[in-house]
Amino acid sequence: MTHMERVEIIARGDVQRVGFRDIVQKIARDLGISGSVENQEPYDVKIVAEGQREVLNEFVQALRIQRGAVQVRELEISWTTPTDEFPYFKILRGEWQEELGERFDVASGMLNRNMELSEQILMVSRESLSIGKSMLDRQDKMLDRQEKTIEEIRGVRSDLQEYMNKRFVRIEGEIGKIKKAIEELGGSCI
Asked: pTM, whole model, 2 decimals?
């Protein structure tokens, strides 16, 4: 049987009012650890977790989050003896007004980020549209050039056909004269 341990962590950085506790709870549940996470005045988050040492090390590494509004700058870590007080991992919440305010802050942050992303997508879409229009203009010019080239080729073919027809008529006339001359000399033309 593996030895259980306890780690107590103070997370510092942008960790309050950004949904960090929810992320911590999900990581802990995914790893099968028990414990708790709660805001700690004024700006930090306290995390207590119990489980196998290897899993707790993985948990600690997963907490070094640097994405979106969550920016964990420092983890103060201390290892202690497990108390087995937690049946599962939970978020310890404050007064409902504070929690509601935090949820609004998280939602506002997500909405702002969504608006930023939407503006970026709109800029990229406009750029793509501009590139698309430019490509269509180039394609139109190429098609115009192709049509002119095809017309020139048709003209050359028509000129060549007319020239060849005149040559054949002249050659047939020459052959006719040669036949007539041979017949006049008393020869026969088959």
From this structure: 0.57
